[in-house]
């Protein structure tokens, strides 16, 4: 024992005599006592040295926020391999898990933040694999402990004031945790609405609520929670009497339209059209894209048709629609009803008065970008409109008065008059 003490004292004396250019005493000792060679790890494994002791011996307990730094990530990888080997060597003698040891030295929030940064691969690409493994282990650790979703929400720093989404993946990870927790505890499912309720206004104002809920709806078991959250937010906005302009960016279109209706019931003096707010938030080509996309989805088709009708009406009233849009518009109808021209006319007639229909068909007919197929379709629809006038036995003078400012109306009325005279001659 005395001999060992002498060796240690001599070692300190030697380090103390080193030049000023060499590392300090504490730094040198730190390197000497935290550098663990592969051979040393094999020795530890043979002796079944506890994983926590090896963790400290390798200096990983003092890495602070730099577990995945260039200096430490290889040591971390070696240590994780040691934990696996130790467990495989003696399964019956289970010590602390790697995650338990890590959380004993670093709080959950700090550990997750290190993992999150490492998973991006921005600092050290090789550390991404280790970080992904540890993220999975940490989530399983929380799940085993039945950690509350609200706590996990804050561990992941999703509830941090002024938080800006780095990507949807972080929120999706939390939603999946809630989903897994509910699957494990089916008798007492957790609704995520309470967590979002406490944090939404301070953390998520830059993200529409519907985008968060759409992410959650990817998990079927979350549907009840999503619906509850939607209902809660609508009721909260109404209770605060929030203007539809304020709520537009926070809600999905279907919920927002319902909110406008409810708001008008509560505030009968409010007369602003929902479409006026809608068009303030999108340019015309964005509206066209939204309509085209939502028409393909059975769940949103009615909403898309409602937007489409208001958009066309607005542009007709303003006479400002780009010249090739009617061709695109009519083409979309033709794609929806490819084998039934009458249906196309019925749909158009249900949404637009004759003045609007005449302008639509004229724009398609005169547009150089219109295909022969579309021009033929426009001609068929003009004939259908004339047939409607014939069925009603409209007076040509009335038609000229109604459509005096509409391009192509004179040609259409002339065609109608000829057919009317021919019909009168046949019936006389």
From TrEMBL:
Any single GO CC term annotated in Swiss-Prot or TrEMBL for this entry: host cell
Coiled coil regions in record: none
Localization terms from the record: Host cell; Secreted
Record keyword Secreted present: yes
InterPro entries: PexRD54_WY
Keyword vocabulary terms for this entry: Secreted, Signal, Virulence
Entry's transmembrane regions: none
Signal peptide range in chain numbering: 1-20
Matches recorded under Pfam families: PexRD54_WY (PF22748)
Domain RxLR effector PexRD54 WY: 140-178
Keyword Translocase attached: no
Family in the record: Belongs to the RxLR effector family.
Name used for this protein in its record: RxLR effector PexRD54 WY domain-containing protein
Organism: Phytophthora sojae (strain P6497)
Taxonomic placement: Eukaryota, Sar, Stramenopiles, Oomycota, Peronosporomycetes
């Amino acid at each position: 024992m005395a001999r060992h003490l002498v060796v240690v004292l001599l070692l300190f004396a030697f380090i103390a005599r080193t030049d000023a250019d060499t590392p300090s005493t504490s730094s040198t000792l730190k390197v000497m006592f935290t550098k663990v060679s592969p051979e040393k790890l094999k020795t530890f494994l043979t002796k079944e040295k506890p994983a926590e002791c090896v963790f400290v011996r390798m200096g990983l307990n003092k890495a602070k926020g730099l577990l995945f730094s260039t200096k430490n990530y290889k040591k971390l990888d070696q240590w994780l391999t040691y934990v696996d080997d130790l467990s495989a060597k003696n399964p019956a003698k289970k010590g602390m898990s790697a995650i338990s040891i890590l959380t004993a030295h670093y709080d959950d929030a700090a550990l997750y933040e290190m993992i999150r940064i490492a998973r991006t691969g921005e600092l050290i690409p090789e550390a991404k694999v280790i970080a992904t493994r540890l993220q999975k282990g940490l989530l399983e650790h929380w799940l085993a402990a039945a950690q509350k979703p609200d706590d996990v929400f804050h561990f992941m720093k999703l509830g941090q004031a002024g938080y800006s989404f780095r990507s949807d993946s972080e929120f999706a990870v939390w939603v999946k945790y809630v989903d897994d927790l509910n699957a494990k505890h089916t008798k007492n499912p957790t609704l995520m609405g309470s967590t979002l309720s406490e944090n939404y206004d301070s953390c998520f104002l830059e993200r529409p609520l519907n985008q968060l809920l759409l992410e959650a709806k990817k998990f079927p078991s979350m549907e009840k929670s999503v619906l509850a959250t939607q209902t809660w937010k609508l009721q909260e906005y109404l209770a605060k009497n929030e203007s539809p302009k304020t709520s537009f960016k926070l809600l999905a279109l279907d919920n927002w339209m319902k909110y406008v209706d409810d708001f008008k019931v509560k505030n009968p003096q409010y007369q602003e059209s929902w479409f006026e707010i809608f068009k303030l938030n999108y340019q015309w080509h964005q509206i066209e894209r939204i309509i085209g996309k939502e028409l393909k989805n059975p769940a949103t088709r009615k909403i898309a048709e409602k937007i489409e009708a208001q958009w066309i009406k607005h542009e007709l009233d303003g006479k400002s629609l780009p010249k090739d849009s009617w061709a695109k518009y009519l083409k979309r109808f033709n794609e929806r009803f490819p084998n039934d021209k009458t249906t196309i006319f019925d749909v158009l007639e249900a949404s637009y008065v004759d003045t609007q229909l005449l302008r639509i068909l004229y724009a398609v007919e005169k547009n150089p970008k219109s295909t022969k197929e579309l021009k033929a379709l426009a001609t068929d629809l003009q004939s259908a409109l004339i047939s409607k006038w014939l069925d009603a036995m409209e007076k040509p003078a009335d038609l000229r008065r109604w459509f005096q400012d509409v391009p192509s109306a004179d040609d259409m009325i002339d065609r109608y008059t000829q057919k009317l005279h021919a019909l009168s001659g046949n019936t006389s």
